[in-house]
Write a structure and sequence with these properties.
globular; mainly alpha; metal ion binding; disordered C terminus; 345 residues; single chain
């Protein structure tokens, strides 16, 4: 994740730490099996923001950033993230070979699962050297991740608000690993217990905010996203009485919103799907999704209030601002523009 650090000593320390993490990832994914070696190492080279290792490195600044467990902890959380990425690709039927193009880009699901398992195994091997407390923390984070995935697959129970359900899913699927990133970084550096707890709370909310910002950038319905769920809430609400028949309540919703929702929840190759995604990008529900993203980022920033004022805290606060800016970068609806109208309008 892009981060501007004004303190030169911190910036230099983070660069050195990130280089050590990259080296640790290459070492951890080395295998005598050529296919595993190619697959796992390619993904580590194209992994994107490296948010979780960055959280470990910044959290360690509240203790001893040079402690021997800091870089291994950062490697562990990134390996776990990459393994989850593989498994999510199978669940979403989008397991794609990194860097591949054309009809041969898709991997067999079995291979994708096994590569993910390999990365989980390597993470566990490194984690064992960090001690039993670190193992327990990572195990709890993994439990929360899996629970979140189960909740997402099962869907909200009868009477549960789909938006609240979605946030609960994200707290597990995404927030659990960013929370343990902050917690492990502080723990292995010997930070004060209160700082460990604060950085875990920060990590969870920042992870959720970052994921919601991603959903704003790609608000499709291939899997539940906040913009689509907010659109659904408008579709079935429209000011109808709670006791009204669901079909009658849906009938009160704005026709344009109903058509948009039906297109978004249909197959991606359905005529009109691409246009529906473009319409959703300028729909008023995105403002509400931005508000929720900002709320999560504000909660992350608030978790830092008990920490000492220092360059590392400023950097963590800057990450919150980066996430909010990313969410705000999605173009809002312009006044008078021909967009799909809100059902409340």
């Amino acid at each position: 994740m892009q981060l501007t650090v004004r303190d030169r000593a911190l910036a230099d320390g983070l660069r050195a730490g990130q280089a050590a993490v990259d080296e640790g990832l290459l070492k951890a994914t080395k295998s005598d099996v050529p296919f595993i070696n190619e697959a796992a190492r390619e993904l580590t080279r194209t992994a994107g923001r490296r948010l979780r290792p960055l959280l470990v490195l910044l959290a360690a600044r509240f203790g001893d950033p040079g402690a021997p467990g800091v870089v291994p902890a950062a490697v562990v959380v990134e390996l776990t993230h990459l393994a989850t990425h593989y498994h999510d690709g199978v669940r979403d039927e989008t397991a794609v070979r990194p860097g591949a193009r054309g009809p041969d880009a898709n991997w067999d699901n079995t291979v994708a699962v096994l590569i993910g398992d390999f990365l989980f195994a390597r993470a566990s091997h490194i984690l064992a050297d960090l001690g039993p407390q670190a193992v327990r923390l990572q195990a709890e984070a993994f439990r929360r991740q899996v629970t979140g995935q189960i909740l997402e697959t099962a869907g909200p129970r009868d009477g549960r608000d789909p938006v609240e359900h979605h946030l609960e899913v994200l707290a597990g699927r995404t927030g659990a690993l960013t929370a343990v990133s902050g917690r492990l970084g502080a723990l292995v550096s010997g930070a004060d217990p209160s700082a460990v707890d604060a950085l875990a709370r920060y990590g969870e909310r920042l992870g959720m905010a970052s994921h919601l910002a991603d959903e704003l950038a790609t608000p499709t319905a291939r899997r539940p996203t906040l913009p689509v769920l907010l659109l659904l809430a408008e579709r079935v609400g429209a000011g109808a009485p709670e006791r009204m028949d669901p079909e009658d309540r849906a009938g009160r919703a704005d026709l344009a919103d109903r058509e948009l929702y039906e297109l978004l929840t249909g197959p991606a190759d359905r005529p009109g799907y691409a246009e529906a995604v473009a319409r959703l990008r300028t729909h008023p529900v995105l403002d509400r999704a931005r508000e929720e993203t900002a709320r999560q980022a504000d909660a992350a920033r608030a978790a830092l209030s008990t920490l000492p004022d220092c360059p590392a805290r400023a950097a963590l606060e800057s990450l919150c601002e980066t996430v909010v800016r990313r969410a705000d970068a999605v173009p809002p609806p312009e006044p008078g523009a021909p967009t799909a109208p809100s059902s409340s309008g």
